[in-house]
Write a structure and sequence with these properties.
The protein has 298 residues and is mostly beta strands. The chain contains 2 helices and 16 strands. It folds into 2 domains: 194 residues, Jelly Rolls; 68 residues, no CATH class. β14 and β15 form a beta hairpin. The chain starts with a helix and ends in a 12-residue tail after the last strand.
């Protein structure tokens, strides 16, 4: 009986846990070259996500192109795999960087530019395989400031074989990546020992748990969050001054304006800040009418 109760509680907790939602997904199945074959050209990047929003870019790599095909000579698209793929996406191609002449691609980056606004508990995963002389050092880093700075999160080392495997990272402990429009996730490659040695990456997936962004606590945070708000937020700065951020910023966003969020009292003293309406056109100051006092009877 005790075991039944424990199993029931476990099932209830699992059912109550919020499900992960796709933020961005790159299937690598549309890497056809204009003249036939598969690969990448300079026009292939930034590569938009196949599901969700986001772009994939390359940095610090050998950008030499074939004069006949216009394709990069050291960024290939070899056959991929269905491991880690979303439903409806069969095995296709892959993103396959090679070491390049003089192993010039050692130190190159694969960057995922995403917005996590409306999401927490960020996670990322992909399928990978390689060759004996390909990259043996794969560092995973994140940036919360659009790529101005990066923090190394983990390193995946060792020679990759011809057997596909999945690498995944749980970023739920990194609060700076929650509700952030300027997240960049980075894979850095190093340690290739030949021109043709490669690593292949396929079915790159970023997920998160849907959640409401936290309310701003200061006027500066309110202005900084202007591009993130999807609902109407009213903040009382003083007894007679209300600063209002109108949302959603995208008129075509699903859900319309949505319900008003709770009023924050007080946000901060209004006299310490000057509202620049030309700079922040979506912020408006209202001075509510005070109720008129009736004359006292004599």
């Amino acid at each position: 009986m005790k075991h039944r109760i424990l199993i029931t509680i476990a099932l209830l907790l699992a059912a109550a846990a919020p499900a992960q939602t796709v933020i961005s997904y790159w299937a690598q199945n549309s890497n056809n070259l204009p003249g036939g074959g598969f690969g990448f050209t300079p026009a292939s990047f930034p590569q938009p996500a196949d599901v969700g929003e986001g772009t994939l870019t390359l940095a610090n790599f050998l950008a030499t192109v074939d004069p006949d095909t216009g394709a990069y000579t050291t960024i290939q698209s070899f056959s991929g795999n269905a491991l880690n793929a979303l439903p409806g996406f069969p095995a296709g191609g892959s993103l396959s960087p090679q070491g390049g002449p003089d192993t010039g691609n050692n130190g190159m980056h694969i960057n995922l530019h995403i917005s996590t606004v409306g999401f927490e508990n960020i996670a990322v995963s992909w399928a990978q395989r390689g060759t004996a002389t390909g990259f043996i050092w794969r560092g995973f880093s994140y940036s919360a400031d659009g790529g101005a700075s990066f923090t190394l999160f983990d390193v995946n080392t060792g020679v990759l074989t011809d057997v596909w495997s999945v690498v995944s990272y749980d970023l739920s402990s990194v609060a700076a990546l929650n509700h952030n429009p300027n997240v960049v996730l980075r894979i850095t490659l190093d340690g290739a020992s030949s021109t043709n040695g490669n690593n292949r990456f396929d079915n790159i997936l970023v997920t998160g748990t849907p959640a409401e962004p936290p309310l701003p606590k200061t006027f500066e945070e309110l202005v900084g969050a202007e591009q993130q708000l999807r609902h109407r937020v009213v903040a009382v700065l003083e007894e007679d001054v209300v600063v209002e951020a109108l949302g959603p910023l995208d008129p075509d966003a699903p859900g319309g304006r949505g319900p008003g969020l709770p009023v924050v009292r007080p946000l901060c003293p209004a006299r310490r800040h000057r509202l620049d309406r030309a700079r922040h056109p979506r912020l408006a100051v209202h001075r509510p009418r005070r109720p008129q006092q009736r004359p006292r009877a004599l």
